[in-house]
Amino acid sequence: MNIQTIENINELEQQIAALIAIEPRFAPVHKQVGTPNLRHNAGGFEQLMRAMVGQQLSVAAAASIWKRLVDAELITPQAIREATDDTLKTQGLSKQKLVMCVH
């Protein structure tokens, strides 16, 4: 599988058209919703952690937990590896998220 980064709105429109060609049932959705805004992030481990923290939480709760992790300098692979479960729980990570982080 080749992963491609969509760099601009024209590329996004092309990819949406290709998706609709594969599955025409997406056409009415695209017509109703329109083209989404293009969002870029830095990627990498920190972005993965941020996405994991935000799963199934309110935006406010995820932001609060993320701030605690940043303040505790627990956003790098090494810091997560070296942190105890209790330390990560103290920052607000659930038991299920601990399993995702450290295993």
Structural features, described:
The protein has helices spanning 9-22, 26-33, 44-54, 59-71, 77-82, 85-90, 95-102. It has seven helices and no strands. It has 103 residues and is mainly α.
Keywords:
103 residues, mainly alpha, elongated
Helix and strand layout, with pairings?
Blueprint lengths: L8 H14 L3 H8 L10 H11 L4 H13 L5 H6 L2 H6 L4 H8 L1
Concise account of the structure shown:
This protein is mainly α and 103 residues long.
Largest sheet: none
User: What is the gyration radius calculated from CA atoms?
Assistant: 18 Å
Q: Oligomeric status of the shown chains?
A: single chain
As residue ranges, the low-confidence spans are none
